[in-house]
Design brief:
- The chain is elongated and about 40 Å long.
- About 25% of the residues lie in helices and about 35% in strands.
- It is built from 2 helices and 4 strands, in the order αββββα.
- Strands 1, 2, 3 and 4 form a 4-stranded antiparallel β-sheet that branches.
- This is Transposase DDE domain.
Amino acid sequence: MRWDEYFRKRSNEATTFLIIDAQSVKNTDTAMEKSYDANKKVSGIKRHIAVDTQGLPHTLAVTTADVTDRKGCLLTLERERDNLWRGTKSPC
């Protein structure tokens, strides 16, 4: 997707629904902090990404892998709180 299209779409509509997902990532020694995700059996970090219904990213949070998806979801929403419209819904 081109950047101009991204910003045009994001500025024309108010987001009413966010989809947040997490991905555990194996990493090397470059991470300052890392831990073990027992569910995925991965040692490393976890990315929590919030996108709208068009797939446009709104916010990103990176945590250690042992953070639950729910806590990561709440952290992601906390980072975006000032930019969210009051009617925005998320399944956290």
